[in-house]
Design brief:
mainly alpha
Length: 344
């Protein structure tokens, strides 16, 4: 029963993340770099900081935890957060050129596979005594392969969509649709986004041990990763503000109330995925396979729900019935990837 509860919590987090880009459509009179920075303050600083406090028992402090933790692990966690930040930037661009459904599918699929495997591999390089590679069992690889199969099927549906729609129809569904450019950016995004899980691996012991409940143990590491990512994104957004002369966005007082509200909503929805991941993993401790695959499962479910939103937002409007069938098959395979490994 605990496993079912854990998977459901992760699924709820995935649904929230996949919904996080919907409020952005309500942001008015701001350029991309301006609203991306503001929603990032909430998504990568404010809410992760609040979440990390849950891992701190009475009489202790978060600052005390970070200062007493292994400094190498802390800085490696932040470093991979900085690298993940590159994935976060290109993630937004992948949806700009491919749409919510296809952009998230390709980027998150690559992220799911590489993030799951890179974590134990790199951890083993620096700390071979931990035997991190033993977590990469046959069942884990099966889960990754099934996930990639689902992503590949959805990718085929995306290619079919690109070939069937006219330029006008593509632009109607996704304003800046560009399949070749979008695919390259989405793959880069997936590669760099996988660094998030690597950061979590390096920071998994940054907690108060038995004093911190299992469901909260990865929240301090999550904060460190997102802080690293915020640095990357903030630097790029400020650069774009300067390049595009969009500093004036922040002076538009009349839209601040509206934009702050929807950026905050987008931020809390985005953070919910990793808050849910931490809580969900607390219920999966009886299954080493699912604990290792939790990140992969989260990304797979993100893809499922992003495509549901893609359908709702009519990004697949005008496609043939065959294309929709292929899309649905891919979604079903991704859902199955959450359960198949535990049957091995």
């Amino acid at each position: 029963m605990d496993i079912v509860i854990g998977l459901l919590i992760i699924a709820v987090g995935a649904f929230c993340q996949s919904s996080s880009y919907v409020p952005i459509n309500k942001v008015r009179q701001w350029s991309w770099e301006s609203y991306w920075l503001v929603q990032g303050i909430f998504a990568w600083v404010v809410f992760p900081l609040l979440g990390a406090q849950l891992a701190v028992p009475a009489g202790q402090s978060l600052c005390g935890l970070l200062s007493s933790a292994n400094s190498f692990n802390v800085w490696m966690t932040v470093l991979f957060g900085v690298l993940w930040g590159v994935g976060g930037l290109t993630f937004g661009l992948s949806m700009r050129y491919l749409g919510v459904a296809l952009g998230q599918s390709i980027a998150l699929g690559t992220c799911a596979a590489l993030g799951t495997i890179m974590g134990p591999v790199l951890l083993n390089v620096f700390f071979p005594e931990m035997n991190a590679l033993q977590s990469l069992t046959v069942a884990v690889f099966v889960g990754v392969v099934v996930t990639l199969a689902g992503i590949a099927i959805i990718g085929v549906a995306g290619a079919m969509k690109a070939s069937q729609l006219s330029d006008e129809e593509k632009k109607a569904a996704v304003k800046d649709f560009n399949f070749p450019k979008g695919i390259v950016i989405a793959l880069l995004s997936g590669l760099m986004s996988g660094c998030f899980n690597v950061g979590l691996e390096f920071g998994k012991d940054i907690n108060f041990g038995d004093l911190t409940p299992d469901m909260y143990k990865t929240l301090p590491a999550t904060l460190l990763v997102t802080l690293g990512g915020f640095l990357t994104n903030a630097a790029y957004c400020f650069y774009q503000n300067q390049k595009n002369h969009t500093w004036s966005d922040y002076a538009k007082g009349k839209v601040w109330g509206n934009n702050l509200l929807f950026c905050a909503l987008a931020g809390v929805l985005w953070y919910s995925q990793f808050f849910g991941l931490s809580l969900g993993k607390g219920f999966l401790t009886s299954s080493a396979t699912l604990t290792t695959l939790a990140f992969c499962i989260l990304m797979a479910l993100n893809v499922v729900f992003s495509n549901v939103w893609g359908i709702i937002l009519k990004e697949w409007k005008g496609c043939s019935r065959k294309t929709i069938v292929v899309l649905v098959v891919g979604i079903i395979v991704l859902i199955a990837s959450s359960f198949v490994p535990n049957l091995i």
